[in-house]
Design goal:
The chain is α+β, with helices and mostly antiparallel strands. It has an 8-stranded mixed sheet, with helices on both faces. β26 and β27 form a beta hairpin. α11 packs across α12 and α16 runs antiparallel to α18. The protein is globular and about 80 Å long.
């Protein structure tokens, strides 16, 4: 294999590949350095670079700039191949069979393509429909204002607090709670830190551990007015100094009752944000909401937590239904929102429902508090700050109806998710890097909206149409050779099974949108299941999906393109076998910087920092590079490691090795490479 490198281009040429003039641009070159520069910028603030894609939480999204670059290399018209030129895929049909966050759909629609997106989970379907469907801006604003005003009028009285300075009743921003625990001789309240806030003048607002008073430095600012029996401790003190036992939470209590209010944070027009120790009125408000909780018509069975790789962490703490993750005020907010949603027409209801579901990430008793850090005053640590359930010592009960643009409020989410997304969608903006400076470039003539079609036959009339399929991509029900290109991001062998985490949102979305999608489905055909992948599920499911991709993909120039990296030989073997079962051959592979760097080290503490972009075609229709097996997988650096792994995939797809021999080859090559 001769390898030629030019500025911004990685070009792989086989001496046996005779016809470089044919095929797609991406078969022969890809602007690696250019794509890497943009992806590095975007990866830190993806929601700002592609706001219309980020209405709702989904995990492991890929950078839109990377996928735009890939799609631009599939454009036939040379005048439109430039990254900053509008369009170029008009008349083409692009499929993403594992669409997740919908990156491929959004990027392809902007380029004028018609797109098909498939996912087994309902949330990607709902998000794609909501973000690709345009509603006039005035209608969007008026609908949200009406929705918000109704909820505020009905529920604002639950979120009031008396200002300790002026004595007036004002909006509550949030309540801070400590975790209740005990040993055999004491009952304690555990918090992350006694410090509640670092002020800009260097002073601190903190808790007095002896009295629960709130102090301004060493001065009592808001004395505790509620006598309690608890000892206040920071979380690093895990065991009792007297009896030696570890402190434990009372698992017989509903989760929302395992916390004790330690500080009320309010917002006064005259005196600004203030912290105060809870008084009797504050406690009575919480108790009043608790009394209303039992009257809500929410069926426990619908919110039952099923066992899964991540949800087991809830079950292990005797949390058996999702309702218990929310305070009574939060449940009142959600219950009233369900009723109010039904007043709106379908497209508007969908956007409002997705906004509500998004707010769940910032409004649960799993939310933590980052205000103790100097650079994060008052910041919420949202429910899925990590790709798992985490349980804070200092929990934060947010006020979703606060009228300011505070983190996690409906007002803030409407502006940052829906409004900003709409404005960007009608005037998409990219970044250009010139002399180490970044400039915004409006892509005139593009929009990030489309037209939903319910049947494939109707998809082909016009441009920027989209078809959404909920179900397994192993049976797409699309005509043979009807798809021009497939661009996707398959799950990694042992990545998190996001369908399990998504149940947190799904149980509520089912209440918000009971008939919008099929809710009676199982995730058994998801490619990722950490418990089953070792038994071959990964290559089995992925093989079925790739086989279906092979069937629907057009012949000579049709391409299957995806990114991948891994350290586990089972992951690489599963991918290779799945592709080989389908019949795909490797046209080319490129190595790009990974957006989410692996913590796994391949050798000498060198982390896995790159992805392989695979370009594959149908074996009966394309001439292929004569890939040679690397003598060994280089482990000196991440780039070489990924390049060699990509090359080995190409060799194995061309080989006559059995599946057992392929697995053995990967094991032999990688076992001595990974440390």
């Amino acid at each position: 294999m001769n390898k030629v490198k030019e500025p911004y281009v990685q070009l792989s040429i086989s001496v046996e590949h005779k016809d470089l003039a044919r095929g797609n641009k991406i078969d022969h070159n890809f602007q690696i350095e250019f794509a890497d520069q943009l992806a590095k910028l975007e990866s830190f603030n993806k929601h700002l670079y592609r706001p219309n894609t980020y209405l709702h939480k989904w995990w492991a999204r890929r950078c839109g700039t990377t996928f735009r670059a890939i799609l631009k290399h599939l454009v036939d018209d040379k005048d439109k191949q430039n990254f900053y030129a509008p369009g170029g895929l008009e008349g083409k049909i692009i499929l993403d069979p594992m669409m997740g966050g919908g990156t491929t759909l959004h990027e392809a629609i902007r380029l004028g393509a018609n797109v098909v997106g498939c996912d087994i989970d309902s949330i990607p379907i709902l998000q794609a429909r909501a973000t690709l469907t345009e509603i006039p801006l005035n209608q969007l604003k008026s609908s949200f204002n009406s929705f918000y005003d109704h909820l505020y009028t009905k529920l604002a009285h639950y979120y009031r607090v008396i200002c300790p300075f002026c004595g007036g009743s004002h909006e509550l921003k949030y309540v801070l709670y400590g975790a209740k625990k005990s040993c055999s001789c004491d009952e304690v309240i555990i918090v992350d830190s006694f410090v509640l806030r670092h002020n800009s003048d260097g002073s601190k607002i903190r808790l007095a551990p002896e009295s629960f008073d709130i102090l301004y430095d060493d001065m009592v600012f808001s004395p505790s007015q509620i006598k309690n029996k608890y000892t206040l401790l920071e979380k690093h003190q895990r065991s009792c100094e007297s009896c030696g036992e570890k402190y434990k939470e009372d698992l017989s209590q509903p989760f929302y009752m395992r916390f004790y209010p330690i500080a009320i944070v309010g917002d006064c027009p005259e005196n600004g944000v203030f912290f105060k120790s809870p008084d009797r009125e504050d406690i009575d408000l919480i108790s009043f909401a608790d009394s209303k909780r039992t009257k809500l018509d929410l069926v426990l069975e619908k919110f039952k937590i099923k066992y899964g790789p991540k949800s087991k962490d809830l079950l292990n703490r005797e949390i058996t239904n999702y309702l218990d993750l929310f305070s009574s005020r939060q449940l009142l907010f959600l219950y009233n929102a369900i009723e109010e949603l039904q007043k709106y027409e379908s497209a508007t209801r969908l956007k409002l429902a997705m906004l509500l579901s998004t707010s769940l990430e910032f409004n649960s008793m799993l939310c933590g508090y980052k205000g103790a850090k100097k650079n994060r005053p008052g910041a919420i640590r949202h429910t899925f700050a990590h790709h798992a359930y985490s349980f804070p010592s200092t929990a934060l009960e947010n006020n979703p109806l606060h009228r300011s643009r505070s983190s996690g409020t409906l007002q803030n989410l409407f502006i940052s998710r829906l409004l900003r997304g709409y404005k960007w969608a009608i005037k998409p903006v990219e970044r250009r890097i010139t002399k180490n400076k970044t400039h915004k470039v409006e892509i005139k003539g593009e929009v990030d909206f489309g037209f939903e079609k319910k049947e494939f036959a109707r998809l082909q009339n016009g441009n920027q149409n989209f078809l959404l399929i909920q179900g397994s991509s192993s049976n797409l029900k699309l005509p043979d050779e009807s798809i021009d290109h497939i661009v996707t991001d398959p799950p990694y062998f042992d990545s998190v099974q996001y369908g399990d985490l998504a149940a947190y949102f799904r149980v509520w979305l089912k209440e918000f949108l009971p008939s919008e999608v099929n809710w009676d489905y199982e995730l058994d055909e998801a490619a990722v299941d950490q418990q089953k992948n070792g038994n071959g599920q990964y290559k089995l499911i992925l093989g079925k999906i790739f086989t279906e991709c092979y069937r629907v993909l057009k012949g000579e120039n049709g391409r299957l393109i995806f990114t991948f990296h891994h350290w586990n030989p089972k992951g690489w073997a599963g991918l290779t076998i799945a592709l080989k079962r389908a019949g795909f051959k490797l046209v080319n592979r490129y190595v790009i910087h990974a957006e989410n760097q692996s913590s796994v080290h391949i050798a000498n503490q060198n982390a896995l920092l790159h992805d392989v972009v695979f370009i594959l075609g149908k074996s009966n229709d394309t001439q292929y590079f004569n890939w040679q097996s690397p003598n060994e997988i280089r482990k000196e650096d991440s780039y070489s490691f990924c390049e060699d792994c990509g090359t080995l995939v190409g060799f194995l797809l061309n080989s006559s090795l059995t599946e057992e021999e392929i697995s053995a080859e990967w094991s032999q090559k990688l076992t001595k490479s990974i440390k």
